[in-house]
Write a structure and sequence with these properties.
Shape: globular
Number of strands: 22
CATH architecture of the largest domain: 3-Layer(bba) Sandwich
Strand content: 15-25%
Bound molecules: flavin-adenine dinucleotide
Distance between the termini: 21 Å
CATH superfamily of the largest domain: FAD/NAD(P)-binding domain
CATH topology of the largest domain: FAD/NAD(P)-binding domain
Number of helices: 12
CATH class of the largest domain: Alpha Beta
Number of domains: 3
Length: 481
């Protein structure tokens, strides 16, 4: 075998997954077709749950140093409302950071942890058998691993080669995106932008630090060939149509387009091959969730796939990835569809938008919609149990230090206020943290490596059952995992 796991695609999903696998000693090879990182800054921000994830792995400071914090409010369909007070999260802000920087930091982290990242490695075909997966690269070379994960974006070759369906709606509305020089001064441009954005939320121009401008605006139609970038002429034409001037646009750095296609893979796993990130789901960028969703997929999958490779995964653990994450994606697709509708300039949707805007003055409505965007409201269906079961736990101050700082190694954690419980038999996979502070309103919680609550309570028998369900058979004291 050339690796335990081959990850196809070095976007944010692939590199986050590679890092998670490396934390558990899994040999990972990342195959990326592009020889250099993409200059296109698609995502511009990270939401709360992704920030929590970065914090749980000791990465947040690197991102905070290069980003800017913004209030959480105003993200749902760009409806201008402040976020509610007292959100259940230590990172109740949006971190503005271009995707180019996020991609770079995540790739650097994966390399630091020992992932073998091979740029210029385009996967063309794959085949699996009982023992592993063989990929053929575009240059004819073949590589083999025990498992393979397609993190190769919306046009995923892996998904297509697997024959997994990608049902949903095609793009009906295209948007142009690019960075270029504008001859007119920002003082003349800004008022025009402000006026148009009152009704057309898909239009925007923002000055960049180096004097260039980021431009986003509706396209003239839907592109037949999505892989071909738009031309400067197309930008000029559309600027003139929407804003009455092309502001002297020239010297583009890059030009791109995106649609509102909305699709969800029928399956996330076929045998030894799995899908994650945009390869498994696409939706328009309104609400800014695609990258966040992919990183969160990777965080859910990493430790489970590592357990499978290391041979201690309990039955059903790997399949719980699809069972947990596919419904989350279906949900995001749905409320993204709703947001797109609310962005339409037609009178009907505009009226619904005004109505929803009024409803958001009710705290419960605002909290509900904000929780969706931040992805802190997710509760995986882990069966009957304590109300915390299935939810992620916010960071909490412990008697010494804080919870997230104790999760950097990607292991399970038993947070125990009683000092009467035990992880004996699972000590290789779960840290036992005795903390008698009052931070938690429950005797003990068992956290999975992805920070979701596997069990809460004080019954040692129920705890042992939960440990076996999520961390496999107990290992005798002298054994190794
Ligand atoms: C305009 C725009 C704005 C957006 N804004 C936001 C936002 O604010 N917040 C947010 O969360 N999301 C946003 N998104 C979505 C976000 O950009 C994507 O969801 C995210 O990049 C998905 O990450 P990924 O790693 O799954 O896929 P990708 O980033 O697409 O990475 C896939 C990688 O796989 C590689 N690859 C493809 N095929 C092969 C192959 N055959 N062999 C080897 N490598 C291959 C590609 O080169 C690429 O590097 C936005 C998207 C757009 C278009």
């Amino acid at each position: 075998m050339d690796a335990d796991v081959i990850v196809v695609g070095a976007g944010p999903t692939g590199t986050m997954l590679a890092s998670e696998l490396r934390l558990h000693g899994v040999r990972v090879m990342v195959l990326e077709k592009d020889t250099t990182p993409s200059p296109v800054a698609r995502a511009l921000g990270l939401h709360a749950r992704s920030l929590e994830i970065l914090d749980q792995r000791g990465l947040l400071d690197r991102f905070l140093a290069l980003g800017q914090r913004y209030p959480v409010g105003g993200f749902f369909a760009a409806i201008d409302k402040s976020a509610p007070e007292g959100l259940d999260c230590a990172h109740a802000y949006v971190l503005g950071i271009p995707q180019t920087v996020t991609d770079r930091l995540l790739e650097a982290r994966a390399a630091e942890l020992g992932a073998d990242i091979r740029r210029g490695g385009e996967v063309a075909a794959l085949e699996q058998d009982e023992a592993g997966v063989t990929v053929q690269l575009a240059d004819g070379a073949c590589l083999r691993a025990c498992y393979l994960v397609g993190c190769d974006g919306g046009r995923s070759t892996v998904r297509k080669r697997l024959g997994v369906g990608f049902p949903g709606e095609p793009s009906r509305v295209d948007t142009l995106l690019g960075e270029m020089q504008l001859a007119e001064p920002w003082e003349a441009i800004a008022p025009v932008v402000g006026e148009i954005r009152k009704t057309e939320k898909r239009f925007g121009i923002r000055p960049l630090e180096d004097g260039a401008f980021g431009v986003v605006l509706p396209a003239g139609g839907v592109a037949q060939d999505r892989a071909t970038p738009p031309t400067l002429d197309e930008f000029r034409r559309q600027l003139t149509r929407v804003a009455g001037s092309d502001f002297g646009a020239h010297s583009p750095r890059w030009l791109s387009r995106f649609g509102d296609g909305t699709r969800l893979a029928e399956r996330y796993r076929v045998g030894r091959v799995l899908l994650a990130g945009d390869a498994a789901h696409i939706h328009p960028p309104v609400g800014g969730q695609g990258l966040n969703l992919g990183v969160q997929d990777a965080f859910n999958l990493g430790w489970k796939l590592a357990a499978q490779v290391r041979g201690w995964a309990p039955t059903g653990l790997l399949d719980s990835y699809e069972a947990e994450r596919r419904p989350v994606a279906a949900h995001v697709l749905d409320h993204t569809r709703a947001q797109m509708h609310l962005l339409s300039t037609e009178p009907g949707p505009q009226a619904v938008r005004r109505l929803l805007s009024e409803l958001m003055d009710f705290d419960v409505v605002n909290r509900h919609l904000t929780g969706k965007i931040m992805a802190i409201d997710i509760r995986y269906d882990l069966g009957d149990g304590h109300p915390l079961q299935g939810r992620r736990l916010r960071d909490i101050a412990l008697g010494s230090g804080r919870l997230y700082a104790r999760m950097h190694r990607g292991r399970g954690v038993l947070l125990d206020r009683t000092d009467a419980l035990s992880t004996a038999g699972w000590a290789e996979r779960v840290d036992h943290l005795v903390d008698t502070s009052e931070a938690l309103d429950v005797s003990a919680v068992l956290l999975r490596p992805d920070g979701h609550v596997a069990w809460a309570g004080d019954d040692p028998h129920a705890l042992r059952a939960a440990l076996a369900r999520w961390f496999g058979a107990p290992v005798p004291a002298s054994g190794t995992a």
